[in-house]
Amino acid sequence: MPSSSLNIFSEKYKEIIENQFRRSVEGLQAPNVLKEAMLYSLEAGGKRIRPLLLFATIDAFQKDPEIGLHAAAAIEMIHTYSLIHDDLPSMDNDDLRRGKPTNHIVFGEANAILAGDALLTYSFQLLAEAPESTISLKNKLALIQLLAQSAGAEGMVGGQVADMIGEEKTLNLDELQYIHLHKTGKLLTCSILSGAILGEANKEQMEQLEKFSYHLGLAFQIRDDLLDISGDESIIGKPVGSDEENHKATYPSLLGMNGAEEALEKHYHLAKEALLNVGDRTRLLEELTDIIVKRDH
Ligand code: IPE
Ligand code: IPE
Ligand code: MG
Ligand code: MG
Ligand code: MG
Questions:
Q1: What is the pLDDT of residues 33-47, one digit of tens each?
Q2: Pocket-forming residues, ligand 2, beta carbon under 6 Å
Q3: 297 CA to centre of own chain
Q4: Using CA atoms, how far apart are residues 75 and 62, in angstroms rounded to an integer?
């Protein structure tokens, strides 16, 4: 595939998923302010990396990526809820997200909490209601189980709690790695493994994709930590210096900028290596990995 194919692929599937968000939320029988708050953050933009990883993984198994629409939308809704809550005054207390005022700045704290709750809950409804002609019941159950585990206490939420416990402390590398693998890595892994479930990957391919996800998750959050220091607010769309202000444990705070760059490079190469054993159609996943590691936002 020529390298411009990732652009074409991304544009196509971003549009498909964004249409799904609008259709889903506008159709809800719920107070208008809640629907507005949910759509505000969903439509604020965002790179849609998780849906794209899911669609690209399905593509690696020569299946139609569109069978992943419900799972991809569910994961992006949970990711968006995690950002709304992450920005709250009681958490990172940030006022800019995806280039716009954060949800609680526009809708107030209570509505922001509730919009997050609604996105989290609705994501499971959306997935559960996917037609059987798109996802078999067996796969649907596997996707729901994986999503619940990746998002909750054993996944993203557990990581967010560890991230807060880590404030004002010097953690060792294992403790810091736990935070990154959970608050960020778990939903990325969920995206890739959901694509693998839908693509009917075999056991060996699953194992290699898990390894890929592990290193990609770490690389993703190390890049995020670096951008929090050296990024440009108008490009990253969120405040620079938030981690230092909140005394967060990050890769740069533990290893320095150079040490963090080296760790990023290491996990980038290990992620790429794992992909080699997945098959011969991993070009989109390879290109997404490059984008994640080299991104400026
Ligand atoms: C930001 O995720 C939060 C982290 C897990 C580091 P993204 O960098 O994917 O944010 P959006 O979705 O593009 O806004
Ligand atoms: C949070 O990590 C990851 C989640 C939202 C689960 P950060 O706090 O570093 O994310 P940003 O930098 O605010 O996007
Ligand atoms: Mg945070
Ligand atoms: Mg934050
Ligand atoms: Mg950050």
A1: 999 999 999 999 899
A2: 82-83, 86, 92, 156, 160, 183-184, 224, 228, 238
A3: 14
A4: 22
pLDDT digits (tens, 9 = 90+) for 246-297: 999 999 999 999 999 999 999 999 999 999 999 999 999 999 999 999 999 9
124 token code pair? 């499971």
Q: Calculate helix-pair angle for 49-60, 4-26, nearest 10 degrees.
A: 120
Instruction: Tell me how many helices (H) and strands (E) the chain has.
Output: 15, 2
Structure tokens at 11: 């544009």
Measured in angstroms, how far is the CA atom of residue 242 from the centroid of ligand 3? Answer: 9
Token reading at 96: 């800019």
Q: Buried b vs exposed e over 163-176: b needs ≥16 C-beta within 10 Å?
A: beebeeeebeeeeb
Determine whether the shortest distance from the Cβ of 17 to ligand 1 is under 6 A.
no
Nearest CA, atom 6, ligand 2: 183
* Ligand 2 centroid distance, CA of 162 (Å): 13
Whether the CB of 47 sits within 6 Å of ligand 1: yes
